[in-house]
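DM from R.C. (forwarded with permission)

"hey, sorry to bug you on a friday — could you get me a structure for this? deadline for the figure draft is monday and I only need the backbone to look sensible"
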Amino acid sequence: MAGASRSNRRIVYETLRRRILTLELPPGAALSENELAAGLGVSRTPIRESLILLADEGLVQVFPQVGTFVSRVDAAKVVDAQFIREAIELASLEDMPDEPDPDAVARLRANLAQQHSPDLPVEDFFALDEQFHQGLLGLSGHASVWPTVVAAKGHLDRARRLGLQANESTIRFADEHAAVLDAVLAGDRPTAQDRLRVHLRSVFGDIETIRRRSPELFAVSDAVPVRRSVAVWE
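My reply, with the result:
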């Protein structure tokens, strides 16, 4: 029974985390333990335990006497996550072999072909984007580092999704991926690093555009929701 309980808790946690990162539960959304439990067909205990874990990650905020909310996107945490990601991915290019594994290269080429499919849904592109960056790390022999990158970038991933939704097409990002891989395969590591750095930092421009349009999605240091007939942000 204990094993089943842990498994259930893990499933609930992963489900809620995915719903937050994919913006199905948008920044600032109020979270009800009762409603979440009913929707997932579980008791309140795994919901409560999962919300504690998500709060530890900064993806959920709990305000006593007010309620529990999906945290709004924290620009400072996006910057920190971007710093970690950029440091790891750029450093990995230093270890790129002169003759990368041809099978791994073929997988990356196939991934890029899918990225360039017309009218690709945002979530489909996001999954391919993740696979590409993980594959690029694998090409340099550092695939095992990817979980560290993933664990650090919850706020960053939400910002990236908001950015993808704000763009009319994902083709620009696919082209940037292709340019990075071309430079890698040409053995031009400085150019590969420059192109990857520009690509990874494009999220900052998207954030500013989205913040001007939808400031309610982003954290303000002293903002606290208040309880009226329902809990709301001010």
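R.C.: lifesaver. Residues 189-213 form the longest helix (25 residues).
me: no worries. Strands lie at 30-31, 60-63, 67-70, 226-227, 231-232.
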